[in-house]
Amino acid sequence: MQTRLFLADDHQLFRAGLRMMLDRMSDVQVVGEADNGLSALEGIREHKPTLALLDISMPGMNGIELTRRVKEADCNTLIVILSMHSDRHFVLESLRAGADGYLLKDAEFEELVRVIREVLAGRKAVSSELSTMLVDEVLNPGQEEAGAWRVLSARERQVLQLLAEGRSTREIADTLAVSVKTIESHRKQIMDKLGLRSVAELTKYAIREGLTQL
Hints:
Distance between the termini: 40 Å
Number of strands: 6
Order of helices and strands: EHEHEHEHEHEHHHHHH
Helix content: 40-55%
Low-confidence stretches: none
């Protein structure tokens, strides 16, 4: 039985190279691609793939938010995050959002195949070098700083990402199909919760938290 796979990454060359390698697998069929989180969500809903490989740093909607939305939509799609981020913060938030696997982008293709196989078999899987960190987290859970993933709602995080990417209030309202007044209210709530007072401060915060990458 073929595995229907969806790719989402904003770097075209990386996506093309990855697809070329995946096409060598006789039991894998790439059914769709996207270069941003919003298009990826639409594509996953349309194609209903068995598995999706998602980057974290994508415009419109980052991979962690996308993972959460896909899982909430009950698409029955397994998700493996492909990221350059090895920080504990990104790995844990991805898994908490519902990711079934997490692989670093500098991994060998053979390790990607291993992670895909394990996830398809119903197991959680991560890059070999992250295993020790996750075991340590279980044995010695750290005290995490109350960042965007804890303080803000999912909608507030999405508005913050779009603000940081330079979208105007009107553009964000149109993208999210809500009123300008609603976006202004979200922005005020975000600033109040984070204690920030300018778009420049919000942008720096969003980048530091991994909501976007400029």
